[in-house]
Write a structure and sequence with these properties.
Layout: E1 4-11, H1 18-27, E2 35-40, H2 53-67, E3 75-77, H3 90-100, E4 104-111, H4 118-121, H5 125-131, E5 133-138, E6 154-158, H6 167-172, H7 177-183, H8 186-195
Parallel strand pairs: 1-2, 1-4, 2-3, 4-5, 5-6
């Protein structure tokens, strides 16, 4: 049986914004992928997230509805990490998903800037580097990596020339719904303001 190929795009999504939508659109052009799953991360060893997992998951659903309607059939949210009671790592998530979904092939999506840190700083990073499937998004302003620095099972995709947006900047606009909506989407902006998330 042919395995279903899943691009697993994880992140804090705190909040999700149009930069994330741009990544999804770039993934939608990758040949051979069947679905794109957006997975809000749990708290990490090096990072605590201020907004609850369910709220971030809901904002992702709103972002998909507002900005990715044409891709809706192949894009979904995935709550695997936020349902876990403990801190999580990419290594643990990979092995858990391989057991839960034996007929799926997961491709982990990251910015190309993380490549040097995978084997040296990540938990079981060398094993991930050698065995995991990766899709690296080459963001505007970053240096395209040479083949010799890349893991053996990966693709690098260009994000294109888009305005750089960070979640930190979006959070700074939380009290200005009009400016906020230009960086996220109208529904996400309204949700942030109504719940006073930031």
């Amino acid at each position: 049986m042919k395995k279903k190929r899943i691009a697993l795009f994880g992140g804090s999504f705190n909040p999700p914004h149009k930069g994330h939508s741009a990544v999804v659109r770039a993934l939608g052009k990758v040949e051979g992928l069947d679905e794109i799953w957006l997975m809000p991360s749990a708290n990490r060893w090096d990072k605590s997230i201020s907004v609850s997992g369910p709220d971030r998951l809901h904002m992702l659903d709103l972002l998909i509805a507002d900005t990715l309607q044409d891709l809706k059939a192949s894009v979904r949210t995935f709550d695997h990490e936020i349902r876990k009671p403990n801190l999580s790592t990419t290594f643990e998530t990979k092995h858990e998903l391989e057991k839960l979904y034996p007929y799926h092939e997961f491709h982990f999506v990251f910015g190309s800037d993380v490549v040097p840190s995978i084997p040296t700083k990540w938990v079981h990073g060398q094993e991930l580097y050698e065995r995991a499937n990766f899709i690296f998004v080459d963001r505007p302003g970053t240096i395209l990596l040479t083949d010799c620095t890349l893991p053996p099972h990966c693709k690098v995709i260009p994000l294109g020339d888009i305005e750089s947006i960070s979640s930190t900047h979006v959070r700074s606009l939380a009290h200005d719904i009009e400016k906020l909506a230009t960086c996220t989407s109208p529904s996400v902006a309204q949700f942030i303001v109504d719940k006073k998330l930031y």
